[in-house]
Design goal:
Number of helices: 16
Keywords: ATP-binding, Cell membrane, Membrane, Nucleotide-binding, Transport
InterPro entries: AAA+_ATPase, AAA-associated_dom_C, ABC_transporter-like_ATP-bd, ABC_transporter-like_CS, ABC_transporter_ATP-bind, P-loop_NTPase
Distance between the termini: 72 Å
Organism: Ramlibacter humi
CATH class of the largest domain: Alpha Beta
Protein name: Nitrate/sulfonate/bicarbonate ABC transporter ATP-binding protein
GO molecular function: ATP binding; ATP hydrolysis activity
CATH topology of the largest domain: Rossmann fold
Bound molecules: adenosine-5'-triphosphate
Amino acid sequence: MKEFLLDLRGVSKSFRTAEGAPRLVLDGVNFSLGKGEIVALLGKSGSGKSTLLRIMAGLIPADGGSVAYRGKPIAGPVEGVAMVFQSFALFPWLTVQQNVELGLEAQGVAPADRQQRADAMLELIGLAGFGGALPRELSGGMRQRVGIARALVTNPDVLLMDEAFSALDVLTGETLRTEILELWDTKSIPTRGILVVSHNIEEAVMMADRIVILSSDPGRIRSEYVIDVPRPRDADSAAVRALIDEVYGLMTMRVAPAPAAAAQAAPAVDYRLPETDVNRIEAVLDLLAGPPFGGRADLPQLADEAELPDEELFPTYEALGLLGLAHVEKGDISLTPLGHRYAAAAHTLRQEIFGQQLLMHVPLASRIREDLEAEPSGTLGEEPFLSVLQESLDAGQAGRTLEIAIEWGRYGEVYEYDFNAGVLKLPDGEAASAGTAP
Ligand SMILES: Nc1ncnc2c1ncn2[C@@H]1O[C@H](COP(=O)(O)OP(=O)(O)OP(=O)(O)O)[C@@H](O)[C@H]1O
């Protein structure tokens, strides 16, 4: 039987919402990391990528299923598995050298040996001469070099990277990524498997032998994609651009709603709305409508023009799709006829269309509107809506979802919101007529 470095079968994990109800974050996840493999894990924000990584690092337990490292069940932090964090996670009061030595200390390596190995690693990772510095004296890129050195100094068999480059500027991120790949490809490190969690499709395509896409709510493995282009890869080559296109396509493929949800009499209100705002929605729509796109674009090309990161663009595409203004398919986005009308419209007509689409396609917004119309005062606190959302979302997500629905609804003049009082109300001029129906 093939031995995997990491092997997960039927892994599930729930967290408790603020109300105490369990919320399934990962469900039936089967995943393995083979020897000699770099795998990139992609998925929307909140799909459970970090949770999955933390389970593999032995930092948190799974609720169900099995998790094994080289055939042995994982029951806590595993020697041989090291992690690099997005936030660097350095101890600010320790020097660079001391931070790097930490992992070795935990493994009981003798001080002289620790120092020698840390020195060698600092040299390898481009930090020679910085051993005595404190993290705050370093740039973000240098700090992440320390984070990487701290992980690599333990000679990990498996390296887990949780959005390790996303807090860095683009060039610094690319440089570090290239250096890690060089260390890997030239076998300068003994690491046998790397798992990278990323939001960045180009990063995933440049690094990985295989891309795994996680779906959301709950997180399940949705698709896998093998990349057999040899490294080092040229980001501008036709082969890489075509791969990026395909992965964009896979990422934006809409998943059909579960039959149970679709069959419910009243539309479900308690699902997350894409994390974006009206400004971004209109900016992307205008960009798409204008030259050179004229209403249809290849997503990576649009991303280049938009100068927004993927994690802001994806929810925006999703919002445009949700509102019936654009259509995303196989790595392309195109405006619908209504989207074209919207792009050509002046501000007031835009607001009207936005409000109309919101009521038609976002059940939370129509629910808020209906409940307000049923109130004699035409006003309601936000708590009842938060409680409905918290039936299936955690408190943070419920709050964010309501905020998004409020921002969109105010723009479309579907309802108003008083920030001081935390109260939703019908727009001025409509309140008087509300609540009078028999
Ligand atoms: N300790 C926790 N308690 C309660 N909920 C949690 C906890 N950790 C994560 N969650 C929830 O689990 C879900 C998945 O979170 P996770 O951080 O794994 O997602 P992610 O895909 O890594 O997201 P991102 O890309 O934004 O980092 C989220 O809805 C998050 O709010």
